[in-house]
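Weekly modeling sync, notes
Attendees: AB, CL, MP (scribe)

Item 1: holo prediction request
CL wants a bound-state model with magnesium ion before deciding which constructs to order. AB pointed out that an apo prediction alone won't tell us much about the pocket. Agreed to run with the ligand included and paste results into these notes for async review.

Input as submitted:
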Amino acid sequence: MIQSKLTKKDLKSDQEVRWCPGCGDYAILNAAYAALAELGIKKENFVWVSGIGCSSRFPYYVDSYGFHTIHGRAPAFATGIRTANPELSVWLATGDGDGLSIGGNHMIHVLRRNVDVKILLFNNEIYGLTKGQYSPTSPIGHRSKSTPFGSVDRPFNPLSVALGAGATFVARTPDNDVKHMNQTIRQAAAHKGCAFVEVYQNCVIFNDGAFDEIYDKKVRKERTINLQAGQPMVYGTEMDKGLRLREFHVERVSAEDADVWDPHLESPAKAFLLAQLDQDPDMPNAIGLLRQVEAPVFEHDVRRQVDEATEKKGRGKLADLIYSSDTWEVD
Amino acid sequence: MIQSKLTKKDLKSDQEVRWCPGCGDYAILNAAYAALAELGIKKENFVWVSGIGCSSRFPYYVDSYGFHTIHGRAPAFATGIRTANPELSVWLATGDGDGLSIGGNHMIHVLRRNVDVKILLFNNEIYGLTKGQYSPTSPIGHRSKSTPFGSVDRPFNPLSVALGAGATFVARTPDNDVKHMNQTIRQAAAHKGCAFVEVYQNCVIFNDGAFDEIYDKKVRKERTINLQAGQPMVYGTEMDKGLRLREFHVERVSAEDADVWDPHLESPAKAFLLAQLDQDPDMPNAIGLLRQVEAPVFEHDVRRQVDEATEKKGRGKLADLIYSSDTWEVD
Amino acid sequence: MTREIGTELPLQQQESVVIRFAGDSGDGMQITGNQFTGTSAGVGNDLATLPDFPAEIRAPAGTRPGVSGFQIHFGSSEVHTPGDAPDVLVAMNPAALAVNLSDLKPGGIVVVNTGNFKETDLKKAKLERSPLGDGSLEGFRVISIDINERVKKALEDSPLSAKDVQRCKNFWTLGMMYWLYSRPLEPTMNWLATKFAKRPELVEANQKALQSGFNAGDIHEMFQGRYEVPACDVMPPGTYRNIMGNPALGLGLMAGSELAGLDIFLGAYPITPASDILHQLSGYKHYGVVTMQAEDEIAAICAAIGASYTGYLGMTATSGPGLALKTEAMGLAVAVELPLVIIDVQRAGPSTGMPTKVEQADLLQCVFGRNSEAPMPVLAASTPSDCFDIGIEACRIAVQYMTPVVVLTDNYLANGSEPWRLPKLEDLEPFEVEFRTDPEGYQPYSRDEKGARPWVKPGTPGLEHRIGGLEKEHLTGNICYDADNHELMTNLRHNKVMAVRDSIPTPEVFGPESGDLLVVGWGSTLGAITGAVDRLQKKDASVGRMHLRHLWPLPAGLDEIFSRYKAILVPEYNMGQMARILRSEYQSHSFHSYPKVQGKPFTTTELMHKITGILES
Amino acid sequence: MTREIGTELPLQQQESVVIRFAGDSGDGMQITGNQFTGTSAGVGNDLATLPDFPAEIRAPAGTRPGVSGFQIHFGSSEVHTPGDAPDVLVAMNPAALAVNLSDLKPGGIVVVNTGNFKETDLKKAKLERSPLGDGSLEGFRVISIDINERVKKALEDSPLSAKDVQRCKNFWTLGMMYWLYSRPLEPTMNWLATKFAKRPELVEANQKALQSGFNAGDIHEMFQGRYEVPACDVMPPGTYRNIMGNPALGLGLMAGSELAGLDIFLGAYPITPASDILHQLSGYKHYGVVTMQAEDEIAAICAAIGASYTGYLGMTATSGPGLALKTEAMGLAVAVELPLVIIDVQRAGPSTGMPTKVEQADLLQCVFGRNSEAPMPVLAASTPSDCFDIGIEACRIAVQYMTPVVVLTDNYLANGSEPWRLPKLEDLEPFEVEFRTDPEGYQPYSRDEKGARPWVKPGTPGLEHRIGGLEKEHLTGNICYDADNHELMTNLRHNKVMAVRDSIPTPEVFGPESGDLLVVGWGSTLGAITGAVDRLQKKDASVGRMHLRHLWPLPAGLDEIFSRYKAILVPEYNMGQMARILRSEYQSHSFHSYPKVQGKPFTTTELMHKITGILES
Ligand SMILES: Cc1ncc(C[n+]2csc(CCOP(=O)(O)OP(=O)(O)O)c2C)c(N)n1
Ligand SMILES: Cc1ncc(C[n+]2csc(CCOP(=O)(O)OP(=O)(O)O)c2C)c(N)n1
Ligand code: SF4
Ligand code: SF4
Ligand SMILES: [Mg+2]
Ligand SMILES: [Mg+2]
């Protein structure tokens, strides 16, 4: 039901935005306003769901329906909402702590079920709201309030976790590239099924510059590669470098020799490999669309069963249930 | 501290085993007795931890220390136990419901942290103890008590989940091959770090024959391939078939052309691809050792920090803490 | 087909009888019990039943853990419980005898299948000697029959294999019991014909076995007489069916949702003894019911709250350990003020405890077990069929007050059964929900006269708003840290829940209007309390009884009622949780707590004993 | 360095003063407050402090949500609370003034930095007009100073940038307040020298600002006189330090583990206001402390139980919503009977609520909020420094009784500070744990005279055994579904927890031995109650007070004490949770509940008012 498009302003709620000045969340919010406005969805049909964290304040700032729930559980709420009413466009704002620490299980299950919910995971590699503890995406050795000697646990790669769980849409986007965010959000919206978007997000207060090595203006062209469907995998300040996959190895080659990227492959193994380039300082980090495939969507099939049963048997009557099995009369 | 080996009998506890007659769990228990006995570990140094489920009754039957905890949380208990005392050989028995449904988050986190715990996940694609509901590993369309019209959610591939979480040891073994189980359990024991072993386990009561298509005596040689480090990837009744990896595709070839399997690759992408062969009815299912790499072990580094701090500053004195900062006298 | 022969044997009338069928899990005792139940209901008895499942899925055949039991209490006057001690024990093997004998009434009848008392059978049951020969059965009337042999003979001509023939044992036994208690064979004959319609050889064999068992009694081989338990004449007229608590609750929720004009979304995670509610509702798809087996209890309740948010009637069903996991989300449901029905089928604890045993010890958890002040109504069903009414009541309160509501039942209610007089659907009062759609003057946290805030479906234009777990400003619902507002909101939430009191009746007192003792119960103790108090009242004891179905808030008028009795006795399956609540609410009365924490229900006898003790002191 | 000039101004003695420093989050008000505190402690005042952090991490500069405050109450007699209404408000900008002015005592002093009252500043604070000119400040003594300008002038010669110069404002203000209250500059001068040792230009600038502020007062520019609050002579002799509740608790746990002879394993998941305990203990690695930031609260407690199982002293620290998640595992800890310390730093709810505001509403959750009967001791600290003692007490009970123990504190204790008289370590009584190693006659569920079962470290040869959440047989610990055993075990667990009562003192009553009213408090209400009751006692009111630190089981002797008063008042930051417990335990007394649910503490005044009301009625 396409209708006259919204403007960004239509989507701004009357609540004062309360993130720290300079926080990457502002840029994400702005990109979202712009992208959502263009979708042709009525604003009353958006539902933004979140857990707890700085990132999870997001719903308050969008003038649609919103539910700021409890820490880590947003995917479960979103599943209930979307399954109960598949007319709604359900979006989820979460953090690396909310979505991958306490909420890791709901996250992998919403991905497994392929519930049509669009997930933006604001990865700032830190707990912002609780003032600076390390998170499951913080690199080994990260000194934080709770790890004064440096963290010792290996971090998750959020995209790997998502792919391992069977995600049908996986993308990554940096909070300092509004255009890229906008495009990624719109791709997520267009996907039929659960979309997982990791946003590299800068927390100016507790983890400032966490991604500077990758995405600072000075280095971004060399340190990121933007994967786009059907496009050669090229990068570099002059767009002269490329990647090629050979025998399960990613090779750096010249742009001409770069492979063309296909996010629609049946096997997620290639995306899995590319998601993990961030381990290698000599490689560009993959951003953009890593995976997008079609698969059964949970709530569609749930509703199909309801519809089929109703069609076959007719809408059930309470009396039939109650007066069903062996009854007898007393008079 | 190798010492005179135990016998299977030493490891049998005095508790009556209470699984259903014919349950695959018996075979796993027997394989475990045999494998554990050979490890040269004193029986008092084993700790078996479990959650809730048929499979989670396991600890009662091993005459060592054991902790039958609560549903889904065994990895967290095991992490505490092993981190507090890295001298102990900590084993975890869990089910597809316990370990991947309610316990999914703890599972991915224990794998991420690479805590040296050996995990046997009894995958029977069903909830046994609660009498037959579908599980997150049940195939789509599975009719169970809670899905009378067939399940609609896509199942997890347990090995993919583990690899996505960063597992350093991943293997699969069938409950109807004692020798293979025994070998796999011993490989897990030898690994330095967290070992994840999926055991195909038959629940005779609620999901009998779930794996017959793969591992029944009649078909197993054609439908499974046993991955072994440094060995060619061959299978078939005559061991005449093989697998070869080309450009992210797995190809069926003759035994001579088969690739040699290397579970020690830095990237988990290849293991990821092979773990998912079970999706393809024309391919053999991978059993055996899919991944084994070295990585920092959580509890070692935790203890290293404690030791280093103690070495550097000397064992802390309570008085120093209490009388530390600005004090003044009142007299 | 059922020849009325043997009528020359003395026929003794009995007011009520308790029979326990016990055998190996494989012996079909549940079917036997259910058939006896159906037939007895058909002849007009009042009755109550209780199965006793083994804790293991399939314990090895013949062992004690493998024993499966089914007890039925049927009578010509009102029957309140499945019965204390059985009058008759049917023991299909040594393990069944060993496990159940101690419960049998002194002088009771024990029917033993001697065909299963071979050396190996005794060994499986961990018996050194056969109880048939060692005096264990002294003081009972023992009927020893080699049922194995009888069935074999009876089905000599059957095409069935020897093993399959033996599987007809239970119908042979049932036939014999039918003879003994003068029940007709038709209902079971018909049931067999339908059940095995596709396998006529099974119909024939089982029908033959049934008839042969009946005849075996008939031709005086074993019994000195037979009994008759006439139809119960105090059962109110109506259409009845036999029902267990779990399915009755499921139907109550269905009825409640229909009365509210809503569809159900049930988010659940399997757990004994609540799983059957999920199983049941997942079969009701053509009623618009959506069920979801979530990844855990937390996701289950969160999904249900999400569904309520969209305008569904969200529900979740669990047992104690699962409820413990839901408490954080329950607090959120209180904060966002959405309807939600939370079912807790209690079981014995703490922790995993004894999942198949009865307890009522989640009461305080449900009333108070949340962080901060998070009040919500708590209801409890008192009989299997009352589960239906409580299900409706929970839906009503949830939608009328925009609040989560807890329903407590237990193991004993869940699996116990009794005749249920079916309601006339047109008598059920609807409480249809109206969703707010008018943007004019809309405030997310305005309240109606009940204290409920408006319910708005996302997708409604012009009413966009945000909710969440942070404290909200009165009316606007905006995040608000103001001190006075917080106190106001805390009071508004509290008052709203307390106002439920205005919509519930003061419970009836049965017995003297005032007197020495009032027995106050809640939940599944109703049957036992009724039985005990009724009997004592017949002996003119000054004791009344009252049963609570609304546990929080407690109904109005209790204080006044309590003041009419010298003392109040509160029997419950916990360490005195309701007694604690009553003491804290009604300080000026004298409450005696009567805790029982054995994983099994009160017997009428022990309750009578306790009451008499108090009355005498 | 600090010239004692200006002494010719009238010097007025005051018994106690409450100052609130308020400014933008970037203005350094916490440092200012802490310096004033340290200096006041050094001159021998008794004191109590409370910071008031903004709810947001970094709200935009100059806005109301960005205001950060710090209140100090210091005196020459005993100080019980951070004070009700401030005598002096220091407001660094319009937002700080707007947010805090209503709290100021009538006739109080307000110091305003007029340098920040430009049009844009007012706008950020959402003020239409300047409160300096619109009569808002009527009734107060207003000291208007352009501190921005003053600092600029004072540091004309500084090499610092203009922006950095402005960052010295708080020290200039502090200097002025030092002058006004006759405090020495040395402590802060020294602190600055150490703090910025590596940046001498900062040392110099800030010291200069401090001195200049002091001089500004000195040269009578603004004040008619200055004040002196002499040293407090009722403080018991000893070594003191100023401490907040969270660190005191951390130290208490350290001391407790040392007294038990064990190492600590803390499993925690960050949550306001409990996270600091994790931060603190994670710095104590050379004390053998292992800390683990788990993936969630459930994993945190489970890992801690696992560690306890190996012989560590397992602990976990959280706040209400996190505690809600731990309840299932707490039940397991009860069932397996292992020591565990569970800390709940309470905050306002329900649900996420108001994370930075105080409440005591998790009491019932902690005492009763678990499935089935799962009793465990619950303690509460009553002052910041009492957190230390409660930490030790929790360790003692946990290991002596082999039980999980809950420690309740709250936001107000956690961040409030007071002088702590340091214990002599040799006075602390050890309670060293002995692990069982002897296989001879070992039974996992045998019990000692306290009811505790033996603690065995895995790895001990010959004592291999299994534990778990299913009901266990008495002594052997084997799984057991027996009815009588379940009742026995339920009672044993209950009695063990109740037996803790034998090891705790009856709380002291302060005031008349009997009388009209006893005020019973628990937790952080101590200061306010003490202040109010003391004052009324001085007026000869018949009111006593008693404070509970052991909430479950309650100490012995309460019934007798309660019977000596006509009425009992229970003030608490919830809807009457302790009052409910007391009513349910001690039925024959008259308890008045005095709830306050505003996310902020009682004032002495409102408590006095309430008490007087009851005394008069
Ligand atoms: C049950 C529960 N546990 C803990 C918390 C405290 N808490 C709030 S947000 C948060 C983590 C925030 O980190 P992240 O999800 O990365 O979000 P960010 O603030 O960095 O955007 C925590 C631990 C809580 N609110 N509820
Ligand atoms: C908190 C909680 N929720 C639910 C249960 C009920 N429960 C026990 S085991 C189980 C699942 C068992 O399935 P799985 O882990 O696959 O083990 P299996 O029995 O198949 O070996 C469930 C749902 C429980 N004991 N505790
Ligand atoms: S703390 Fe970090 S993530 Fe949170 S609002 Fe501030 S800058 Fe953003
Ligand atoms: S139910 Fe299934 S998994 Fe459980 S013991 Fe029986 S056969 Fe094994
Ligand atoms: Mg974060
Ligand atoms: Mg299973």
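Recorded for review: The interface with chain B takes residues 56-61, 65, 268-272, 275, 278-279, 282-283, 285, 291, 293, 295-297, 321, 351-352 of chain C (CB under 8 Å).
Action items: CL to compare against the apo run; MP to circulate these notes.
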